[in-house]
């Protein structure tokens, strides 16, 4: 197969020997050993391809959390100031690395809360509907929590979601949303749209949207623009600052490998850094650090996105995030993205080689329009197929009615993982 899209190799081969050679020549292969791989009863690792749901645990995570437990044990409340990593400013230890990961300035990024909480906080500030401009634009197949959040915000402001929620749909017989259709909706209804809020990498199809283009289209019509980057952070190069988006939110337990239910991240563009006219819910952790413990002072917001903080953060969760971010700093998101393109393109090649009319990849074929995920539709299949590949040692994700989501993660997945999965899928389709 000619694979000019990878920019590195020209030909893929459907063989275990080729996969092994690719792994041997992979400059990122050393990072696999930094993670715990789930192990089967026979002692062999599972083929883990579910990092889009929950990333694997870095081997350094236990030590990072135990350090905080030790400091809590030894210092009690004084750990806020005397722990190895003092708890009072702990979130600041994550800022630069997280900003690098998502392509933003430190003043634009903070780790806090969880994704849906942060989305609501952002909409408090950036969804200010009026009678003439009250609509929210979102994907039809957005992650359910996002849809619930925007619908509840519309209701909170006294409007009807049936009238104010615009859902982007793919054309009849297609799975992906065309950019020209997004442009058309914004052009025709932009004057009535208060907020465009799209999942930058769609959880179901894996489609990676052009955030800069969408932001430009929205701003030209006076709309605020935000993105849910849950499936983009740690997966693709987001370049949030350059996108011009007003805000973005993401979780850290998928591609950022911070553990189940861990904290999320939040981006607010620096042009809003000192805009005190923006409505926001206030809490003491968003207050001026110099006078935070004055207790009786009126709210004096911190410059930048930190002013959206409400409460002091859970240190144990942040310790896990810090451990993972150190690996990302060492690897470099651009290097990981290069491998991800190669790895996902190899998976695409292998799935195509199955040569079964029932099998269809619904994720974009262009690597620039997808991340480390292929959504594989198996027509006429049911969950029994997924159960069979699971029994063969594959950990992946099933989405009704007939889609298997496969995410080969550049940090810890190998070409052999991808080859093994494709062989198991082919064998179970017979």
Q: What would you say this structure looks like, in words?
A:
- This protein is an alpha/beta fold and 430 residues long.
- The protein folds into two domains: 154 residues, Aspartate Aminotransferase, domain 1; 241 residues, Aspartate Aminotransferase, domain 2.
- It contains 14 helices and 13 strands.
- Strands 2-8-7-6-5-3-4 form a seven-stranded mixed β-sheet, with helices on both faces. Strands 9-10-13-12 form a four-stranded antiparallel β-sheet, covered by helices on one side.
- α1 packs antiparallel against α14, α5 packs parallel to α6 and α12 packs parallel to α14.
Based on helices, strands and strand pairing, what is the structural class?
A: alpha/beta
* CATH homologous superfamily identity of the largest domain: Type I PLP-dependent aspartate aminotransferase-like (Major domain)
* CATH class categorisation of the largest domain: Alpha Beta
Total count of helical runs of at least 4 residues: 14
Largest sheet: 7 strands, mixed
What pattern of helices and strands is seen along the backbone?
HEHHHEHEHHEHEHEHEEHHEEHEEEH
**Whole-number tally of structural domains:** 2
Mean pLDDT: 95
Distance between the termini: 24 Å
Rg for CA atoms: 22 Å
CATH architecture of the largest domain: 3-Layer(aba) Sandwich
Q: Count the strands?
A: 13
Percent strand: 5-15%
Which residue ranges are poorly predicted, with pLDDT under 50 across at least 5 consecutive positions?
1-7
The third-level CATH topology of the largest domain is Aspartate Aminotransferase, domain 2
Widest β-sheet, arrangement of strands? 2-8-7-6-5-3-4
Helix percentage: 25-40%
Shape: globular
């Amino acid at each position: 197969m000619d694979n000019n899209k990878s920019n590195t190799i020209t030909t893929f081969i459907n063989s275990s020997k080729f996969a092994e050679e690719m792994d041997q020549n992979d400059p990122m292969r050393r990072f696999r050993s930094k993670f715990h791989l789930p192990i089967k009863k026979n002692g062999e690792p599972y083929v883990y391809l579910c990092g889009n749901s929950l990333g694997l645990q870095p081997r350094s995570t236990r030590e990072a959390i135990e350090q905080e437990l030790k400091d809590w044990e030894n210092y009690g409340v004084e750990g806020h100031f005397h722990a190895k990593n003092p708890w009072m400013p702990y979130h600041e230890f994550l800022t630069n690395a997280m900003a690098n990961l998502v392509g933003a300035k430190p003043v634009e990024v903070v780790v806090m809360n969880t994704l849906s909480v942060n989305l609501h906080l952002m909409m408090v500030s950036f969804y200010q509907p009026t009678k003439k401009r009250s609509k929210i634009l979102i994907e039809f197949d957005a992650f359910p929590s996002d849809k619930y959040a925007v619908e509840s915000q519309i209701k909170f402001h006294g409007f009807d979601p049936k009238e104010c929620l615009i859902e982007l749909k793919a054309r009849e017989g297609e799975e992906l949303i065309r950019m020209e259709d997004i442009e058309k909706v914004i052009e025709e209804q932009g004057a009535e749209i208060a907020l465009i809020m799209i999942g930058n990498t769609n959880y179901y199809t894996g489609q990676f949207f052009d955030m800069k283009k969408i932001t430009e289209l929205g701003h030209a019509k006076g709309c605020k623009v935000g993105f849910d980057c849950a499936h983009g952070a740690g997966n693709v190069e987001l370049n949030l600052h350059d996108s011009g988006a007003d805000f973005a939110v993401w979780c850290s337990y998928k591609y950022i490998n911070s553990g189940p239910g861990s904290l999320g991240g939040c981006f607010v563009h620096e042009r809003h850094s000192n805009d005190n006219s923006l409505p926001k819910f206030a809490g003491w952790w968003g207050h001026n650090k110099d006078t935070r413990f004055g207790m009786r002072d009126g709210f004096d917001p911190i410059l930048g996105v930190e002013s959206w903080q409400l409460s002091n953060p859970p240190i144990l969760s942040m310790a896990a995030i810090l451990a993972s971010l150190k690996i990302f700093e060492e690897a470099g998101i651009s290097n990981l993205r290069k491998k991800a393109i190669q790895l996902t393109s190899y998976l695409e090649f292998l799935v195509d080689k199955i040569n079964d009319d029932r099998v269809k990849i619904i994720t974009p074929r262009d690597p620039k329009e997808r991340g480390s995920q292929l959504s594989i539709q198996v027509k006429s299949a049911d969950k029994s197929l997924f159960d069979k590949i699971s029994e063969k040692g594959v950990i992946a994700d099933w989405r009704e009615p007939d889609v298997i989501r496969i995410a080969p993660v550049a940090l810890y997945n190998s070409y052999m993982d991808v080859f093994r999965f494709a062989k198991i899928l082919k064998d179970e389709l017979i």
